[in-house]
């Protein structure tokens, strides 16, 4: 191996290691081994580099097991040239290990023993920005899939990848309810349509029929694209709610008033069944009416901090978002010092005017370009008292560019659940070290 040097990794931290296979014509028999032991325990695992035919890094669980992989398992991490592969390992309060191997589809239910008595303000979860934009149907001149489509996986695929918070933007187009991604620039509307709302409803119901997870849906940016991109009328909002009533397992209470459900513990949502919490960013003059008793809520019921960086520069976005976590999250017992509003970490790059027609800077490409820093840079910046509730991303569940030359359509790329394992690592390695959170 040309480069194979592994450090001691501090508990609760991420380490980045550069690995380089032989480059002088002898790479066919390259091999490397690194041995780790979890301090204070007898638990061990190994990292192995091999190139019998392809470059691969594997994890050998020779002296331990995780919740999803038995002792003796071999986990193939693959290899990405000049890009990261991730091995994420954390332990919950009961001492059980979690990793990004095996099946974590119902990660909330699997970790309910440690998360069940935590409020939503005290839990981290993956989230999907522009969740309905997993496909592109032309809307306006100038819109294309590169500057309009934000997700590679459809709604159901994002659920399987671990996402639990969804930014859904319903619009009326050709008389139908669809997901939309529209912006007004200099009095001109630009954008297009994604997945139909009917299809999303079916995929949510398919998921909740199998998995007892909490799904949070934030309705916003609603428009009537058939009528000059006007805001929805009260009657149109009512018809949208009627359509969404097709979602099973809606979290429903009578007369919720202004109750803040971010203060509700996870057990109250999914202790017995799946739960879908739907809240709407209602414009002035629009009310829920009786839909408030049918599983629909407004922004008073789910107050949150949500401030994106509006930058296409990774360093600026990352610095801005991490500073906002530091400034706005302080989960401590002292109520006079506590800052615990439900926090969205918008780990997203925003196309600027010079990017809109540059397919290489497609929204999905920008999304994957900052994922490695989320696992490394962001995780190390979080503390037990200061961490976000939603890891909010474009390109949920992928890490390789799907938009490449000849730019005729997104190419096929591998999917992964690393972001779910990262959320669990925050819940275990960060929040799990906060006695204010775990002591109740």
What is the fold's blueprint, element by element?
Layout: E1 3-4, E2 19-20, E3 31-37, E4 44-50, E5 56-63, E6 74-78, E7 89-91, E8 97-99, H1 107-110, H2 112-115, E9 125-128, E10 137-138, H3 145-148, H4 155-161, E11 165-168, E12 170-173, E13 176-185, E14 188-196, H5 197-208, E15 214-219, E16 223-224, H6 234-244, H7 266-270, E17 275-280, E18 296-298, E19 304-306, H8 314-328, E20 342-346, H9 363-369, H10 371-381, E21 390-393, H11 418-430, H12 435-438
Parallel strand pairs: 9-11, 9-21, 11-15, 12-16, 15-17, 17-18, 19-20, 20-21
Antiparallel strand pairs: 1-2, 3-4, 4-5, 5-6, 7-8, 10-14, 12-13, 13-14
Helix pairs in contact: 4-5
Report a brief summary of the structure:
The protein is α/β, with parallel strands linked by helices and 440 residues long.
The biggest sheet, with number of strands, parallel, antiparallel or mixed sense and barrel status, is: 8 strands, parallel
CATH superfamily of the largest domain: Phosphatidylinositol (PI) phosphodiesterase
Strand order of the largest sheet: 18-17-15-11-9-21-20-19
The total number of structural domains is 2
Segments where pLDDT lies below 50 for 5+ residues? none
Number of helices: 12
Protein name: PLC-like phosphodiesterase
Organism: Polyplosphaeria fusca
InterPro entries: PI-PLC_domain, PLC-like_Pdiesterase_TIM-brl
GO biological process, one term: lipid metabolic process
């Amino acid at each position: 191996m040309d480069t194979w040097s592994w450090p001691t990794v501090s508990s609760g931290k991420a380490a980045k290691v550069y690995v380089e296979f032989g480059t002088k014509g002898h790479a066919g028999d390259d091999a490397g081994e690194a041995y780790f032991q979890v301090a204070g325990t007898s638990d061990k695992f190994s990292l192995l580099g091999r190139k019998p035919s392809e470059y691969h890094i594997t994890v050998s669980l020779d002296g331990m097991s995780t919740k999803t992989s038995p002792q003796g398992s071999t986990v193939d991490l693959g290899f990405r040239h000049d890009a990261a592969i991730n091995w994420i390992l954390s332990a919950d309060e009961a001492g059980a290990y979690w990793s990004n191997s095996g099946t974590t589809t119902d990660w909330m239910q699997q970790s309910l023993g440690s998360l069940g008595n935590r409020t939503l303000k005290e839990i981290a979860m993956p989230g999907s920005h522009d969740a309905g934009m997993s496909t592109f149907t032309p809307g306006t001149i100038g819109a294309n899939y590169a500057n309009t489509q934000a997700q590679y996986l459809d709604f159901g695929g994002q659920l399987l990848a671990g996402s639990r918070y969804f930014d859904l933007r319903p619009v009326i187009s050709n008389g139908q309810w669809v997901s939309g991604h529209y912006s007004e620039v200099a009095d001109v509307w630009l954008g297009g349509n994604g997945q139909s709302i009917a299809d999303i409803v079916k995929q949510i119901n398919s998921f909740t029929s199998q998995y007892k997870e909490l799904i949070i849906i934030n309705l916003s940016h609603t428009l009537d694209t058939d009528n000059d991109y006007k805001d929805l009328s009260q009657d149109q909002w009512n018809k949208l709610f009627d359509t969404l009533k097709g979602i099973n397992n809606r979290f429903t209470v009578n007369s919720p008033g202004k109750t803040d459900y971010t203060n509700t513990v996870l057990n109250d949502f999914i202790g017995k069944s799946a739960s879908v919490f739907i809240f709407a960013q209602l414009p002035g003059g629009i009310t829920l009416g009786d839909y408030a008793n049918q599983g629909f809520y407004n922004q008073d019921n789910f107050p949150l901090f949500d401030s994106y960086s509006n930058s296409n520069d990774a360093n600026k976005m990352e610095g801005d978002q991490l500073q906002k976590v530091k400034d706005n999250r302080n989960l401590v017992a002292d109520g006079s010092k506590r800052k615990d509003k439900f926090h969205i970490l918008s780990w997203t790059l925003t196309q600027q005017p010079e990017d809109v027609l540059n397919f290489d800077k497609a929204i999905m490409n920008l999304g994957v370009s900052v994922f490695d820093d989320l696992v490394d840079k962001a995780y190390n910046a979080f503390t037990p008292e200061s961490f976000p509730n939603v890891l909010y991303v474009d390109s949920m569940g992928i890490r390789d560019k799907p938009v490449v030359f000849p730019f005729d359509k997104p190419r096929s790329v591998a999917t992964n659940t690393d972001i779910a394992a990262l959320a669990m690592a925050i819940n275990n390695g960060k929040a799990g070290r906060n006695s204010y959170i775990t002591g109740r």
